[in-house]
Amino acid sequence: MVVISTQREKSLSNEFNKYPKQGAMKQRTKFLAISLLLAVFVFTGFGCKGPDVTAITASRAVTLEYWTVFDDVDAINALIAGYRADRPYITVNVRQLRADELYQRLIEALADDTGPDVISVSSRSFKQFASKLAPMPASVSDTKVQVIKGQISTETVVTPSVVAMPTLTQIDREYVKTVRKDVVLDGQIYGLPLSMDTMALYYNKDLLDRASVPEPPKDWVQFQEAVKKSTRFNKLTGKISQAGVAMGTGNNIPGADDLMYILFKQSGLNFVDDSGRAVFGNYSGDNNPAASVVTFYTDFANASRDTYSWSEEMPNALDNFINGSSVFFFGYSYNDPIIKARAPQLNYDILPMLQLDNENPVNVANYWIQSVVSKSKHQNEAWGLINYLAYSKANQAYLDATGRPTALRAYIPAQKAKLELAPFVSQVLVSDNWYRGRNYDSTRKAISDMCHDWLQPPPRENQKIAQWQQEIMNIAASKINQTL
Predict the structure, then answer these.
(1) Which positions ≥6 away from 426 have C-beta within 8 Å?
(2) What is the DSSP annotation of 48-102?
(3) Range of the domain at 335
(4) Helices in 191-255 by DSSP H: which ranges?
(5) pTM given for the model
(6) CA angle at 33 for the pair 27 and 36, rounded to the nearest 5°
(7) Claim to verify: residue 25 and residue 67 sit in the same structural domain
(8) Ordered mean pLDDT values, 10 residues apiece, the chain (484 residues)
(9) 347: Cα separation from own chain's centroid
């Protein structure tokens, strides 16, 4: 610890001026040597007296560029303000970008040596960014600078320390299970999440009441019945005027691929294997179980089925729900504040994901990971900031400010008690990220194309439907596997 007293600085200055200008060169030389030695001690963290906090801040100045995607900039900045209170030499510029521009902007910035130090990366795109990221060190050096004002003088206390970073064992024990699979590459940790998200079922309470459905569905059978009762059609055009649910297509449903994965896993079928390869095309036969799952999903967009309630011509699923034109919507916790902001009068509620087997619940993990860019010149300070935001008590403050579910097991019980978070938090322990390839956008499109093709008749005359469906699944799986 280094203590710097402004009163002592004045004393030293007065002592220096006591020497006469003539005939005291030895004393003045000795004084200058001692002063320089003290200054060196202060800047290296081992001295006792020296410059004030302004000088320290200027000498150690570090500016971190932090790129994030979600609208959590205010929450992050508030926590950073607390972090900087003890580290005034660190400045953090937080910048929000769109998810679809993040990778290209990073590539361009790195080429110009103007890239960020800290970046928020989707768990679905982590491998795409991996070569641009730095592994987490075992520890980081940290220096706190505190100003203590007394009656006689003001002291600046400088406390250097070494902060241990989370280990693989701690990641395993303290975070929900999917985190280790997502952030660890070749035995090294490449980032930490601030939160976790899962899929849940939103429903419009007023529309369900008007459809004479007294209670929201508790399983998929009740869900189908509720959809049938609540879907409305225009009498003149025959088109859907009120969607029972946004389901069955991929082009206008955010998270359609996640919902497909959930349906496969709930049915006891592998959508992807342990290596991440798509294997849903491996099933075959006249009673192909994989085909049955895809058919269940797409029947909600099949005009010949009694569950028909959606189509590819409909608007974006979230927009349709916000407009009060959909009864059910499968979404994530981050959709909730968007709905509240755009439709404050909408009377809706949220249920945990419907399950096929309540004894073996299934859900999907969708979240962002905070990482350090390998070209950062301040990796030590960048990792220190991530550790503070994601792995200290500050993380709880972040979760409270943003209203997002936790990725840390310790906070789950308290969050379960919050009604608005319970549907999502109750599922984080059984959630998993199913895609760990290098091009999530292409994968998402492959699933969307599969849904579209499934709704079309076979292109070749006399071709059996089962054969055509098998081809569709094989093509989609092949496209996904090309991105791994």
Answers:
(1) 352, 416
(2) SS---HHHHHHHH-EEEEEEE-SS-HHHHHHHHHHHHHS-TTEEEEEEE--GGGH
(3) 199-364+439-481
(4) 205-210, 220-230
(5) 0.87
(6) 140
(7) no
(8) 45 38 41 37 40 62 94 93 95 94 94 94 94 97 86 82 97 97 96 98 98 97 98 94 98 97 97 96 90 98 97 97 98 96 98 96 96 97 98 96 96 96 97 96 97 94 90 97 96
(9) 28
